Amino acid sequence: MPVEERAEESPAHVIVVGNEKGGSGKSTVAMHVAIALMKSNQRVATIDLDSRQKTFTHYIENRHDWAQHVVRDLEIPNHVYFVENMDNPTADDEAADGRALSEQIEALARDYDFIVIDTPGRNSYLGRLALSKADIVITPLNDSFVDLDVLGTVDPKTLAVTGTSHYAQVVEEARQLRQLRDNVSFDWIVLRNRLSMLNSRNSRLVGEGLQGLSQRLDFRCVEGLGERVIFREFYARGLTALDAIDETILGTRPTLSHVTARFEIDTLIDAIGLPGATSAGDEVVGHSRDAA
């Protein structure tokens, strides 16, 4: 059901960014979603469930440090780094972790409008639990058959999709659990990330495969982020494409890449359909003539 039709007793919208394939851009997407909501005056909390990499946590720490360095106010969500028991956890350990995560989400839901959760690039109990509590699930996927494999199986001769794969099954099970427990069906969005600037047969075939899977698995397929170096550069300073294109904040002279990345993120946020998130496009226009 659309997010705006949620029951009144549910005080916060839970957005889970998940994919068991690493390197798909989960933390970048989670950060941009969180900041987009905060720039629209939403109260946002974030949770990092990746106890190994902690990429989302480091991204937010970098943003805090850079804000102090440039002496500027940057939107920073209330962030929680959730530590799970990873040393051969027993069923009791997983159950205890699950209760702790559920309690954390319930506590945050009382004070925030949105909770954005970044999950590990692996199969994990907490990742599956987070999916079952979602209102929106966002799955970033690199534009290749290697990444498509987490959602669907492919015929090696025709390259046509022949069935569903492991992560698709995990999401479907979480969707069924959410429906049974809360009578809510979450919105599942698959983002095609790292899109090449050039059309190719591979990209076309991957797109056709995703379109077929979207009907079978009931997800929306949305164009994500292009293969742009600028998104990697943002991470070290905790910045996003939604921040002001300002030399003081960026720490460097704005370029056309900053403007293009902003346009791409605005388009992505609009396509996801986050309630209350507004475009920052007007701010880009004001600074674009400084870009080179």
Which strand-content bin applies to the residues? Answer: 15-25%
Q: Number of helical runs?
A: 11
Low-confidence stretches: 1-9, 281-292
**Class based on secondary structure composition and strand pairing:** alpha/beta
Helix content: 40-55%
Q: Main sheet: which strands, in order across?
A: 3-2-4-1-5-8-9
CATH fold type: Rossmann fold
Task: Assign an overall shape.
Answer: globular
What letter string, H or E per element, gives the SSE order?
EHEHEHEHEHEEHEHEHHHH
Q: In CATH terms, what is the architecture?
A: 3-Layer(aba) Sandwich
The end-to-end distance, rounded to whole angstroms, is 44 Å
Biggest sheet overview: 7 strands, parallel
How many beta-strand runs? Answer: 9
What Rg, in angstroms, do the CA atoms define?
Answer: 19 Å
- Structurally, the number of domains stands at 1
Which CATH top level class fits?
A: Alpha Beta
Describe this entry's structure for a reader.
- This protein is globular.
- The chain is 45% helix and 15% strand.
- Mean pLDDT is 85; it is low at 1-9 and 281-292.
- It has a single domain (9-244), classed as P-loop containing nucleotide triphosphate hydrolases (Rossmann fold, 3-Layer(aba) Sandwich).
- By secondary structure, the chain is an alpha/beta fold.
- It has helices at residues 26-39, 55-70, 91-109, 125-131, 145-148, 166-182, 201-217, 229-237, 247-250, 256-272, 281-287; strands spanning 13-17, 44-48, 78-81, 114-118, 136-142, 152-154, 161-164, 187-193, 220-223.
- The strands form two sheets. Strands 3-2-4-1-5-8-9 form a seven-stranded parallel beta sheet, sandwiched between helices. It has a two-stranded antiparallel ribbon with strand order 6-7.
- β2, α2 and β3 form a beta-alpha-beta unit.
- The protein has eleven helices and nine strands.
